[in-house]
Model the fold of this input.
Amino acid sequence: MNYVDLFSGAGGLSLGFKDAGFNMLFSNEIDEYAVLTQKQNLERLGESSNKVISCSIEELHSKIIGREVNYEFQGEKVLNHGSNKLLYKKAQTLNSEQLKIVKRAKDIDVIIGGPPCQGFSSASKGNKSFHAKDYKNYIDDPRNQLFKYFLDFVGHYNPKLVLIENVKGLVSSSNYQQLIDNSLQNTGMGYFTYSQVFNSAKFGIPQVRERLFFIGVRRDIKNAEEFVFYLDSLLLGQAHKKLSLYEAINDLPPIRSNPKSLNTKKENEIPIGQEGSFGENESTLGYRELVKGLSDYVKNINTFKGKLIEPEKLYNHKSRFNNKDDLKIYSILSAGKTLTHNENKDALKLVKYSTNSFADKYFKLDPDKPSRTIVAHLKNDNNGYIHYGKVPRGISPREAARIQSFPDWYKFEGPLSFQFKQIGNAVPPKLAYVFARIFHNFLTGGIEKTIN
Done:
C-alpha cells in the first residue's frame, strides 16, 4: 500500500507509516535541514533519498496540478509573514528527476501531512488580536492557507484515506476546524470525515502533546461510513499508561552545558564520558558503551518493523550554551513548578524582566511526569525545557527526540538549533504508527479485521 507525505518535515508521520508496512512514493518538504534529515534516514533504511521532493508546495502544485488555488473563503489580504521569507528564499527548485518521480506516482492509497497553521498555535496567544478574538489576522496569515494546497493534491489523487495533523488551536479558531472538515468532505470524489484532539501522553509517549487530527475516508470505499463511526473506539482503544520523562531519557549519558557561546564546531567537542563534555553530534564512543541498558520504552522506539535496531553511535546528544545568570536560575528551580510558584521565589528574584506575559519562560521538567509539549521554539532557547539533573542545562536534541518517540538511530541533520526545530515540528512516530496500523488493517482486511 502506497502513501504520499506532504509538508513532511523531518519525517515523523512517515516513519510511523513505514513501520506499519506502508510504502512511501514521495514526500514533499521545503525546509533544507528537514529534507536532509529525511534523505539521510531513508538511506539508512535502504530506500532512495530521491523520494524526498525538496521544493515549495506551490511549485510542486503548479507542475503537477497546474491551476490556481482557491482562496475565496479567506480574508481580503494575505499577510507577508517574515518568518516564511527565508524559508522560501532557500527553497530548492524542483528538478527533472524529482518531477519524474512525482509524475510516476500512481495507486496512492493514503495522503498524509501536517500543513502548517502556525497562526493558530497556542504560542500565538500572546498576540493582542488573538485575545480580542480578531481571528481575521490569523485566517489571512499565509501559513494558515497552505492546507488548501494539501486538499488540491487530495482532489487530484483521490486517495482512499487522508490524515491531516494540526495544532489544537484550530478547535476554537473561528470555526476553522469545521472549515477543514467541510472542505475535505467536498474534495475530489468526496470523503466522510472525522476530527479529534489527541494527547500523545495517552498513547505511551512521555509528553503532554495535544494535536488535532483530521481523517478522511473516500465515500465509495466499502464500509467507509462505518469505519468513521468506529474511529473513536479504535483510536482510544490504543491508549497506554502514561510514561514519565525519567523512563524516556534517564539512561542517556550525563553532559554539561556548553561553556562557550557559538562553540558548535565538531573540533571543539569533548567526547561524551570525558570530564567537561557538553556532548557530541555523533559520539566518539559506541552507542552501547554510552547507553548501558535499554528500557522497555527505548526498545519500543528503536524497534522498526518488528526488529530492534541499535545505532553504532549516539547522535544529537549535545548541549547549547547557557549564560551564568540562566544557569543559576536553572540550578535552583523546583522541577515541575512554574516560575511564579512559591517554591521558585528565589529563582524568580534572579529574573531580570517582567514575568506577567512570560511566567513559563523558565521551567524545569519533572522526571516523574510526562514532559511538557516539545515545540519548535526550542530552536531559540532551552529555558522552558531544563533538565531535571544536578548539572544545570537545557535538554539535548536527542532527549527531545526521545520525548517525541524518535528512535536513537534516527539522526537529525543541520545546526543544533535547527535540529530542535525539526523535532518540535514533528508528529511523534509512535503516535503516527497508531493511525497507520488502523489504516492498514482497514485497507487490507476491511471493517471486520479492523474492529475485531
About this structure: The longest strand covers residues 191-199.
